[in-house]
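Final report, closing paragraph on structural work. Over the funding period we assembled a curated collection of sequence-structure pairs, and we close with a single example.
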Amino acid sequence: MYDISTRKRALSLVAQGRSLNSVSKETGISRHAITCWLSRLEPLTRMATADPGPPADDCAYSYLLGLYLGDGCISAHPRGTGYYLAIACADAWPGLMQQCREAIQQVRPGIGVYTRQKKGCSMVTSYSRHWPRLFPQHGPGRKHERPIALAPWQQQIVDAHPWEFVRGLIHSDGCRITNWTTRLVAGERKRYEYPRYFFTNTSTDIVRLFTDALDRVGIEWKPLNQSRAAVTISVARKASVALMDTHIGPKH
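Its predicted structure, as stored:
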C-alpha cells in the first residue's frame, strides 16, 4: 500500500523523537501501519531506542552536533550490534581532528575514538548503540534529501551554546578566507585585504539552522547568488568578522 520512500520518511520522523500521532497526521499514514513497520525493524534499531541519557557535556555536544550536520554520518555495524558515528575531517587540519575527538569523548566519557584514513581525509569514528538517539537527524538517504530539524532538547542546548554550534558548522562546511582588492589612492595603487567567512551546504534546513544561530549571536550575514544547488552564506561585515574571529577563528 505504501512505497519504500514513504515508509522511510515515516520511520525517519519517528527516529527524530516524534510521536506516532504526529507522524500519522503529517504523513496520512495510519498508526497501525507505522507500528507494524517498527515491529519489523532489526533488533539493533529497537535496542537503539533505549534512552542513553543526556550528553555529558552540553557545550561539547553543541559543537559535535555542528560537525555531524556538516560532515558526519551514522552507519549500522554489519553484525547488528551497534552504530558508528563518523566525522570526516580534512587531513590539512589536524587541530580540527583533535577537537572532534575531544568533543566525542566529552559527550560520551570513556567511549573509544579512532581515526580511519581515507583518500584526502580522515574519518574520526566512534562506536556505540546509542548514536541514533543522540543524533535523531540520522535517517535513510542524504541529509539534503530529507527534513532536518532539531529535537526540543537539542534546540535547548544550541540556544544555550550557540557559538559552539556555529563553530562546529564552520569547522565542517565552512571556512575563513582573506579577499583582496586594489584601490587608487593619491595616484598610487594600493592593495587592501579583508577576511570573511563562508558556509556552504546543500540542505536548506541545515543552512537555516546555521543562520538562525548567527542571528542569535548578532552576526550579520547574506546568501550569495550562485547557480549550483548548494547555498553559501557569507559573513563579510567588519564587526561581524571580528566577532567570529573571537569565537571561531581559522581552522588549524
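The chain has a mean pLDDT of 87. The chain has three domains: 4-41, 58-143, 168-247. We thank the funder for supporting this effort.
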